[in-house]
């Protein structure tokens, strides 16, 4: 937990653009994970129907 805090503060100290880049990257990761979750949910539904 402390490491993450230190990493975030290091980005903050680099300035606004570094923060924007970090947040944008995190949003992209969340979007990718959401797509994976949706695919997995659809697959689960498909498999449940088979059972």
Structural write-up:
The protein is elongated and about 55 Å long. The longest helix is centred in the middle third of the chain and has 35 residues, at 16-50. With 51 residues, the protein is mostly helical. The chain is built from two helices and no strands. It has helices at residues 2-14, 16-50.
Task: Please specify the SSE layout and strand pairing.
Layout: H1 2-14, H2 16-50
Helix pairs in contact: 1-2
Protein name: IS66 family transposase
Structure in a nutshell:
The chain is mainly alpha-helical. It is built from two helices and no strands.
Keywords:
51 residues; 94% helix; IS66 family transposase
Shape: elongated
| Poorly predicted parts | none
Estimated structural class? mainly alpha
Number of strands: 0
Question: What fraction of residues sit in β-strands?
Answer: under 5%
Order of helices and strands: HH
Give the proportion of residues in helices.
over 70%
- Cα end-to-end separation: 42 Å
Radius of gyration: 18 Å
Largest sheet: none
Give the integer mean of the pLDDT values: 95
| Helical stretch tally | 2
């Amino acid at each position: 937990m402390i490491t993450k805090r230190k990493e975030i503060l290091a980005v903050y100290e680099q300035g606004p653009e570094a923060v924007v880049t970090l947040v944008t990257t995190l949003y992209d990761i969340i979007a990718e994970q959401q797509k994976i979750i949706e695919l997995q949910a659809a697959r689960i539904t498909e498999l449940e129907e088979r059972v």
